[in-house]
């Protein structure tokens, strides 16, 4: 999506460890106009899969998921992050390794919000090694629901998550796929 690629090119900053910072429009300050456009595009890309719920992971997935839910007129659930792993009683839960913080955390979703028969669209801001999506997929499985696809704003195509998840049969649509990035330039896959 050219609109997103242009913003990444003009405002993105690359940090050590292959981390792209897009804090001026997606990760700290939010650009509502841009994010609503991302939501409309995901709605267009996944309309045929007929999702009835969206699942994302806090924090940065929430605005994009919200915009997508508004476009598709379906509810949005965000998995909550916790540092400890055994205080959740009956909630669905899964352990995720954080790419940006280098630690493990547990994500939980209350059982009442996801059920057997739900058709779930996963949304997140970034896809790198796919651990965040793995955690969300595990929660969908625990609920007996079906993941109908994953919409990602920015995929780092040089990391393995996208290829692995697609080869497992998941429909993954990323609005900007970075082919290469260094201090001097960012290039995208067509
Ligand atoms: P994965 O689990 O696919 O390895 O990484 C995806 C998660 O890590 C996303 O939820 C995102 O919050 C974070 N992440 C991964 N790479 C980046 C990056 O380059 N920049 C930012 N801002 N977040 C990232």
- Separate helix tally: 6
Average of per-residue pLDDT values:
95
Beta-strand proportion: 25-35%
The number of E-state strands comes to 10
Please tell me the CATH architecture by its name. 3-Layer(aba) Sandwich
What kind of sheet is the major sheet?
8 strands, mixed
Summary keywords:
binds guanosine-5'-monophosphate; 32% helix; 33% strand; 10 strands; 190 residues; 6 helices; alpha/beta
Itemize the secondary structure elements and their pairings.
Blueprint: H1 2-11, E1 13-15, E2 19-21, H2 23-27, H3 32-46, E3 53-57, H4 61-72, E4 76-82, E5 92-97, E6 104-109, E7 119-127, H5 131-142, E8 146-156, H6 161-167, E9 172-181, E10 186-188
Parallel strand pairs: 3-4, 3-7, 7-8, 8-9
Antiparallel strand pairs: 1-2, 4-6, 5-6, 9-10
Helix pairs in contact: 3-4
The structure holds guanosine-5'-monophosphate (5GP).
Summarize the structure.
With 190 residues, the protein is of the alpha/beta class. It contains six helices and ten strands, in the order αββααβαββββαβαββ. It is 32% helix and 33% strand.
Describe the fold and architecture:
The protein is an alpha/beta fold. The chain has a single domain, classed as Rossmann fold (3-Layer(aba) Sandwich), CATH 3.40.50.2020. It is 32% helix and 33% strand. The protein has 6 helices and 10 strands. It has helices at 2-11, 23-27, 32-46, 61-72, 131-142, 161-167, and strands spanning 13-15, 19-21, 53-57, 76-82, 92-97, 104-109, 119-127, 146-156, 172-181, 186-188. An 8-stranded mixed sheet has the order 5-6-4-3-7-8-9-10, sandwiched between helices. A two-stranded antiparallel sheet has the order 1-2. Helix 3 (32-46) packs across helix 4. The chain starts with a helix and ends with a strand. The protein binds guanosine-5'-monophosphate. Guanosine-5'-monophosphate binds at residues 19-21, 27, 57, 60, 99-100, 124-132, 156, 161. Guanosine-5'-monophosphate is lined by residues 19-21, 27, 57, 60, 99-100, 124-132, 156, 161.
């Amino acid at each position: 999506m050219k609109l997103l690629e242009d913003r990444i090119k003009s405002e993105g900053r690359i940090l050590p460890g292959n981390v792209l910072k897009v804090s001026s429009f997606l990760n700290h300050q939010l650009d509502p106009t841009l994010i609503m456009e991302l939501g409309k595009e995901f709605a267009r890309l996944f309309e045929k899969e007929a999702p009835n719920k969206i699942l994302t992971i806090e924090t940065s997935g929430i605005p994009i998921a919200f915009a997508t839910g508004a476009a598709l007129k379906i509810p949005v659930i965000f998995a909550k992050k916790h540092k400890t792993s055994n205080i959740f009683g009956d909630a669905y839960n899964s352990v995720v390794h954080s790419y940006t913080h280098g630690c493990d955390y547990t994500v939980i979703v209350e059982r009442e919000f996801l059920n057997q028969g739900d058709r779930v669209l996963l949304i997140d801001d970034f896809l790198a090694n796919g651990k965040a999506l793995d955690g969300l997929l595990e929660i969908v499985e625990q609920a007996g629901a079906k993941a109908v696809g994953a919409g990602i704003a920015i995929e780092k195509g040089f990391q393995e998550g996208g290829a692995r998840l697609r080869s497992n049969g998941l429909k993954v649509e990323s609005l900007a796929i970075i082919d290469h990035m260094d201090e001097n330039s960012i290039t995208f896959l067509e």
